[in-house]
Amino acid sequence: MDLPLLRSTFAVVERRAEHAVTYFYSHLFWRNPGVRELFPEDMVPQRDRLFAALTHVVTGLDDPGLPAYLGRLGRDHRKFLATPALYAAVGESLLAAFAHTAGAMWTVEAEKAWSEAYGLVAELMLRGAQEAVAAGEPAWWDTDVVGHRRHGDDLAVLTLRPRRPYPYLPGQYAGVSTLRVPRVWRTYSLGNAPREDGTLDLHVSRIRGGAMSTALVDGVRPGETLRLSAAGGTAVSRTPPGALRTYICAGTGWAPVRALLEEAAAHDPAAEGRIFVVARSREYLYGREDLDQLAARLPGLSVTLITSAPRHPRRQATERLLTALRACGRWADHDVHLAGPPGFLTEVSEVLAELGADPARTHHDVLPPAGRFATRPATRAEWLLEPPAVHWHDPAARIPHEDRS
Ligand SMILES: NC(=O)C1=CN([C@@H]2O[C@H](COP(=O)(O)OP(=O)(O)OC[C@H]3O[C@@H](n4cnc5c(N)ncnc54)[C@H](O)[C@@H]3O)[C@@H](O)[C@H]2O)C=CC1
């Protein structure tokens, strides 16, 4: 495959990404009546996602990990009802959009290189999907909502009972979809270690204008059905029994940490280390009872709760956390588990590295990809060639202007 040619044409297309994406979707929907209904109503996040995904593929074409990644992606895309015919239609429209946007750069060689590259991507994704079918894995898991507990105006913990066994590890996340917001999938961490009755918790923080989080916090009620996609994420426990560890979470980042603590309480109750729970204010420190109970089962872990002072911006809590982390020692000996808003993860990881924590032992979910569109919140949709990273929503999207700092 002609990588330099792929990259040089992509660089040209990328400069007119907005135009290319508009052309791509218009072409796709015009040529394939019926396909529009497979996509969410709000297409704006789709546009960002498409280019984030293309960037990932183009930059990673020579990455030996790409086939496995694309296989997982294909397996996951069954939830979007992605058929081989749809993969072919997407490829055709993508090439048409590139040809239109790249102008004089779109030579016969460039078209051949892109056609081959897309063919390979589609083949690897479809193979992943076929393997999942062969293994008997469903495209998604239907679950019944059996509990819905509010914590203040913006937070809710939903309890779901999957209708068939749902495999996952503590610390992982799942795509979630509700018919209240058709065809939209959002990622949420699973808030408990697997239970005997199979139920699992989602912790949801409402974002302003966020259709999915608003539906889950305000709308969804027990008795309704939610769909879950296959669990993903590598921020699972790798700490050997007895080794030191630190758990740091902010906001609903408490969910995966809670799951990891449940796992530790069951299998490694003598674990030693520390837990830091950060929230924008005392009212947002939800789940205190659970934390107290888990702390009692894990007496070797010290617990520190950190919030912003009343009427102070929410990020003051992060500054307070960083002060507390600087006062701790032996970072090189600790496995660290981090969960929370993307900006929080970036800032805390950097400080931890400065303090001597080993980045290879600092575990958190992948951050949203950097790039041209990265500053826009990608909140409510996923589709073919979704971006590589989990799109935790951008908390800035829900901070009122007067509270930004
Ligand atoms: N596995 C993971 O990493 C998980 C991540 N999340 C993400 O965590 C966030 C939770 O949202 P909320 O509960 O509403 O939290 P929030 O918006 O109330 O933030 C909680 C605290 O995080 C810190 N923070 C927020 N934005 C920051 C930034 N840009 N830089 C530094 N510190 C920052 C502040 O101290 C704030 O008080 C969402 O973005 C969600 O997508 C949620 C669950 C799991």
Helix and strand topology:
Elements: H1 3-15, H2 17-31, H3 44-60, H4 66-76, H5 84-102, H6 108-134, E1 141-151, E2 155-162, E3 173-178, E4 186-189, E5 200-205, H7 211-219, E6 225-228, E7 244-250, H8 254-267, E8 272-279, H9 288-297, E9 301-307, H10 316-326, E10 335-339, H11 342-354, E11 362-363
Parallel strand pairs: 7-8, 7-10, 8-9, 10-11
Antiparallel strand pairs: 1-2, 1-6, 2-5, 3-4, 3-6
Helix pairs in contact: 1-3, 1-6, 2-5, 4-6, 5-6, 8-9, 10-11
1,4-dihydronicotinamide adenine dinucleotide binds at residues 189, 205, 250-253, 255-256, 278-280, 284, 308, 314-315, 317-318, 339-341, 343-344, 347, 364-365, 392-393, 395.
Question: What is the rounded Rg?
Answer: 22 Å
Overall tally of domains: 3
Main sheet summary: 6 strands, antiparallel
Low-confidence stretches: 367-392, 397-405
SS class? alpha/beta
Q: State the fourth-level CATH superfamily of the largest domain.
A: Globins
Apparent shape: globular
N-to-C terminal Cα separation, in Å? 47 Å
Write the element-wise H/E pattern from the N-terminal end onward.
HHHHHHEEEEEHEEHEHEHEHE
Oligomer: single chain
Find the CATH topology of the largest domain: Globin-like
CATH architecture title of the largest domain: Orthogonal Bundle
Task: Calculate the mean pLDDT score and round it.
Answer: 88
Secondary structure: helix percent? 25-40%
Major sheet strand order: 4-3-6-1-2-5
Bound small-molecule species: 1,4-dihydronicotinamide adenine dinucleotide
Strand content: 15-25%
